[in-house]
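Annotated sample (chain length 208).
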Amino acid sequence: MPPTLEHEQRFMAHGYHLIAGIDEVGRGCWAGPVVAAAVVLSDVVYHMPSVLAGLNDSKQLSATQRLALFDTIQRVALGVGVGMVSAHDIDALGILTATRYAMQQAVMQLPLIPQALVVDAVAFAQWPIPHQSIIKGDEQSLSIAAASVIAKVRRDQMLITLDRSYPAYGFAQHKGYGTAQHQQALRQHGLIAHHRRSFRPMVDMTTS
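Output written by the structure step:
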């Protein structure tokens, strides 16, 4: 079943009208930043959700589908914000804190102040905006699914750019995830500044 606006409409029933969906990409990667996006959908989408037909969790979409939806989301959203935390800061903060920070950045980068948030999986203990954390939210909420596509496309673009500087690592193919290709490149070429040294197998490479 594709994502719907059910969670957003529950907030609207309580008088909240600017609802931001939030998701992150790259949490489990070996290299590169964790990237989060916040998306506030417009009334056009609430009145006619079919304008985002085909939208789903970004992991279930092809690169071509994501790019097409990326453009559509930008066109029909009231606001889009993106936040990121580098590999170095992930090592310093820990991945969960870094993920929360990227999400908070994404909200602050919105051109408007949301009245409520629907968030994929992550909870904020002291966030001043009413919010709901939803497990597998990118499969349930249209706003979160939109955020997942924005975050995925933006992060992929960053890793493709990184690949131009470090072509031996294959970042354009694996986007920093722990593939066999990536592991082989680590064995042959070692670590670069964009690797997360607190993650395995990188931590083992720095302590051996």
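Annotation: The CA atoms of residues 102 and 137 lie 17 Å apart.
Annotation: The domain at 6-202 is CATH 3.30.420.10 (Nucleotidyltransferase; domain 5).
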